[in-house]
Each structure stands twice: as structure tokens, then as C-alpha cells.
Amino acid sequence: MNRLIGVINLDNELDHLKELTYFRCGAAVPFAGRYRIIDFTLSNMMYAGILDTALFIRRKYRSLLDHLGDGRPWDLDRKRGGLFVLPPDWNDPTDTSKGDLQHVHNNLDFFKRAAGEAIFHSGTQHINKVDIGDAYRFHREKGADVTLVYRQVKQLEPEYAACTRLEVNEDGRVTGIHQEQGHHNIYMEIFIMDKKLYLQEAERCIAHGDSNFFRDAVQRNPDRLHIYAYRYDGYHALINSVESYFKHSMGLLDQKQYQALFQSRPAHTKIKYEAPTRYLDGAEIENCLVANGCIIGGRVENSVIFRGVQVQKGARISNSIIMQKCVIREGTVIENVILDKDVKLSEDTTLIGSVKSPYVIAKNTKM
């Protein structure tokens, strides 16, 4: 959809995944056996035909940039348009902008040159399959200044505690934006706004010394702007803590949840050419999500296994997430554990966490 310009804003996403975000931003955290969290936002934009996508990024981005490359998996390796990583600061002594508004102010050329008339603005912590084209049609039909995307959740989970909530009338008009904990309309950190208005509001906020575009341009101006809300009802997983990451990762072992995320418009990711997983004699696998390139000789149940993992004979893994190229040696017992990439465990190691508080081992650890 060439009328839309994509913006992925990581500036306000805090790295709350403990060991998993020691060396990377949250958007680069591996998920579902072969993906990174940002892949789902990029894939939604790809299916909508968005040709220009800007990435607002400030810290711990080496791993993310290595994953994104030239943007080819999401059809963003273009001679015109494509993926643009926008730095927040050019060390301009006259620049008074702050927060995510710095990205807009210091990269006005991108927005002026991009071939689109509206902004589709998203974070990455809300994994979803929003139909961007349908949301944009809703935005146009309502004549909205801003359209916010929300999900009406049946049950309020702990990860929703920090979420903004929306009051929405029968016509879809937003009548309130707040943080009341008992409210079920969860704002998904996604909005659509016409480009001209977006740039005008950014300029106004900077002039007033503001630092957060959504809070200062949208949330504080419900009477001045025509704000509507587009309701999304598909797969949704909010990843903003180790506990929520573990819960939603393990949830994909349920076939219904897996199909909801991957059956139609599957996510795209960085391509890696690896051999199929090899199962040795005596290997036992039950209810697992296993990527390619692994060698498995032990018992693995109710677990997510990423690419290139080695599980030696006699090892036992249950209810765990094992990321790329980990080595689990003979006699090791793992339960309710998250191993980040390239962890090497010695023989006869025992690691046991709990479902509500999984044991996390940081990247490159040797035990």
C-alpha cells in the first residue's frame, strides 16, 4: 500500500526481558524457533505493500541490524524506498528536540521524500497480524485525524498492567485514553495519521519541549483531534517481561495458537540455509516446536528448540526454550528454563525453574 509510510518506533520500548536483553534490544529477541520479535511487524507491513519503512532506534542495536541486513526478506531491498534506519541525533547544537521526536526532527528529509500520504506507526512488543490495509480503509472512511489500533481482551493478564486503555463509543470514536487497570480495551501501540498532520504535530510538540509523540500529540489532545479506534481480534501476544515471553512462546505449542499466528500470511525472517534436524537413535520428542539444523539424541518434551541446537543422548529437556546453537550435554536435566544463544552446558548439569518464573541463562554462558 504505497499510500502508507511505515514507522517502527523502538525508542520508547524498554528492555525488560532481563538476560535476554543484556546484549540486544527487545525487538531483536528470538521468538518461535526461527524468528525475531520485529519480524512480525515487518511482515505485516510487507503484506500491506508498504514501500518505505523507517526504524527509530537508539541503543543496543548491533544484533538487530545484523538480522535486518538490507531488508530483503521483507521486500525492502529497493533502489527507491526500502528500509531506513534513522538515528536520533546528528550532534546539532541548535537541536532542542527530545525523546522519539528527535528521530522525526533530525530525519525530516525521509518523511518529505517518502512516497506516501499517511504514517503507519508501530512498536514491536505487541505481536499481531493486523490487516493494515483494512485499518487504513477504516481510517479514511471515518475521516479520522488519528486511528488507534486496540484489542479488547477477555482476561487482564499481568503484562497489561503498563498498557494504555481506550474508551470507544459505538461509532468507533475514542472518548478517553487512560491507564485504568480494570479496563479491557488495550491500546496496541499502533496508530495511523496523515503525514502532514504528523509532521505538524511533531513540530508543535518540539516547540513546547515535549518528548513523547503519542503522549504529547495524541493522548493529551482528545478534544482537538478526531481520534478513532480500529478493533483487532486476531492473534495477539504482548512481550514486555521474561514471564510474558515464556508464556507466549510456550503457548505456540498449542496448535490453535500456532495456526492463528502462522497459517495465513506467515511471518518472514532472515534466511538461513541449514540441513533438516537429525534425530539420533533413542531420541524422544513430544509436543515440541523444533527448527532445522539441530541434532537431538535425548528426550525433549513441551519445548521450543531453535536452529542448530545439539541435545546429546541421555539429556532431558522439558517445558523450556533453547535458542540457537546451544549444546546440551549427556546427563543434563532442564525444566522451565530459557537458554539464550550459544549456551554450553556441561555433563550432568541440572537447571530447574518454575512456570511463573523461568530460569534464564544469558547468551554465550558456559556452565
Please outline the helices and strands.
Elements: E1 4-9, E2 30-31, E3 35-36, H1 38-47, E4 52-56, H2 62-68, E5 82-86, H3 101-105, H4 108-113, E6 118-122, E7 126-128, H5 132-142, E8 146-152, E9 165-168, E10 174-178, E11 185-194, H6 195-207, H7 213-219, E12 227-231, E13 236-238, H8 242-251, H9 255-262, E14 278-279, E15 284-286, E16 289-290, E17 295-296, E18 299-301, E19 304-305, E20 310-311, E21 316-318, E22 321-322, E23 327-328, E24 333-335, E25 337-339, E26 344-345, E27 350-352, E28 359-361
Short account of what is shown:
The protein is α/β, with parallel strands linked by helices and 367 residues long. It is built from 9 helices and 28 strands. The chain has a 7-stranded mixed beta sheet.
Task: Give an overview of the whole structure.
- The protein is α/β, with parallel strands linked by helices and 367 residues long.
- It has 2 domains: 259 residues, Spore Coat Polysaccharide Biosynthesis Protein SpsA, Chain A (Alpha-Beta Complex); 84 residues, UDP N-Acetylglucosamine Acyltransferase, domain 1, CATH 2.160.10.
- It is built from 9 helices and 28 strands.
- A 7-stranded mixed beta sheet has the order 5-4-1-6-11-8-12. Strands 14-17-20-23-26 form a 5-stranded parallel beta sheet, with no helix packed on it.
- A hairpin with a 3-residue loop joins β2 and β3.
Determine the number of helices (DSSP H or I, runs of at least 4 residues). Answer: 9
Largest sheet: 7 strands, mixed
> Which percent range fits the helix content?
10-25%
State the distance separating the first and last CA atoms: 49 Å
Q: Provide mean pLDDT, rounded.
A: 94
**What is the gyration radius calculated from CA atoms?**
22 Å
Query: In CATH terms, what is the architecture of the largest domain?
Result: Alpha-Beta Complex
Q: What is the tally of beta strands?
A: 28
The CATH superfamily name of the largest domain is Spore Coat Polysaccharide Biosynthesis Protein SpsA, Chain A
Strand content: 25-35%
Oligomer state of the chains in this structure: single chain
Whole-number tally of structural domains: 2
